[in-house]
Amino acid sequence: MMLPRVSVNDLTREDTMATDVSIRVLSWKEAAGFVHLWPTHRISLLDPDDAALAAVSPRPDLVTIEMEVADVTDPNHPHAATASDVRRLLEVGAHLPSGARVLVHCRGGIGRSPAAAMIVLVAADRSPEQALEQVLQVRRMARPNPWLLLLADRQRGVRRRGLFPVWLAWAHRQEFFHPVPNRVVRDGLAGRLGWDEQIELVKAQTHKQRGVSHGRHRRA
Question: For the chain, what is the domain count?
Fold first, then answer.
């Protein structure tokens, strides 16, 4: 599968970098009670049949992004994230004003929204390590979806120490992810893994292996 490569540097940036961006990663239930006062931006990632779970607010000033993305790691799933989905997230992060407060939610706040938050943060000039650390600070139960992260690296034209390799280095130490050999982790951080190898690593992290039980994913 060939995907276009888009560098964040190619996107139009604000003159002031968004170095003080705050982010929250929540489930839809938590977000529903949080969206009315705190955020300047709201990003919802839900299955098509779950669109009614978006944390809506009548506030006219709230920047809203809604995406139909399933929490799956199989690129062939009909509702898996696409290159255009992660491009939207990169564009949001690249245009965040100073002091932005970003609320990201999915159904359970475990897989899709942590990954989306990491993508937004790297577009706002965090390193992948900083993005992962910030997300884990606000959402300890986070298990970021690796397919979203891999797509974002592809869009940014990054292989070495990108979002996916940094996730891989963290995930292989977590019992709820499918184990990965240390050699593979080192190759990933060094940018020595090919696209097909990375795809296989992503697909190995099935919904069951990642230990997430809240989603309802339908296959054609």
Answer: 1
